[in-house]
Design brief:
Layout lengths: L7 E5 L50 E12 L2 E4 L4 E5 L24 E5 L5 E7 L10 E8 L6 E8 L2 H8 L7 H4 L7 H4 L8 E5 L2 E11 L2
Length: 222
Amino acid sequence: MAGAGATLVARPAVAQVPHADPPAPACVLTPAQTAGPYFVDARQARADLRVDPVDHAMKPGAPLALQLRISAVDGRGCRPLAGAVVDVWQCDAQGVYSDASDRRFDTRGSKFLRGYQVTDAEGRVRFVTIYPGAYPGRAVHIHFKVRTNAPGAAREFTSQLYFDDAVTDRVHALPPYAGSSERRTRNARDGLYRDGGRALQLVVVEAPDGYAAMYDIGLRDG
């Protein structure tokens, strides 16, 4: 859990097809952001988040291959952080989260679009998900949480990843995102995005079967 003064540093990297060699990490300070009301510590170890393990239904949407790379950062630079647990969770194409209840939906018991992976020797995790939909009051985003359990250095960090409005315009013009324009808040009107969101914005590229994006995250060492 978060140690006193624990700080992550991160910056968007050039998006890559997930198995391509990414550029060397470059780290700058970035703000934490709230987990929001929909985090569930579901302990779902999986890379493909699209299928609900409860009923095996696949959530429709534009496929998104997301690679995150975690580094430990000190005054000498960055080194890969292996063995970190990275949770990702998001809404579906209609703006609905799994295993949650609010005035718009009740999906308690479902587990779609949630999961975690453990970083490999290069500090990487890879997920297959969908481009998120929209819901009132928030820009389009994906949540993530990084947890480390090193002796004497256990910590936790939570933030969110955002998308360029122009890319979202193109994606949300197609099924199954019908109606997203009515529900959607653009980046400049989202208070959380205005508080550091530009540093958390993904660079998304078209891939053979959808889209791909990569993001570098660095955890201050010590």
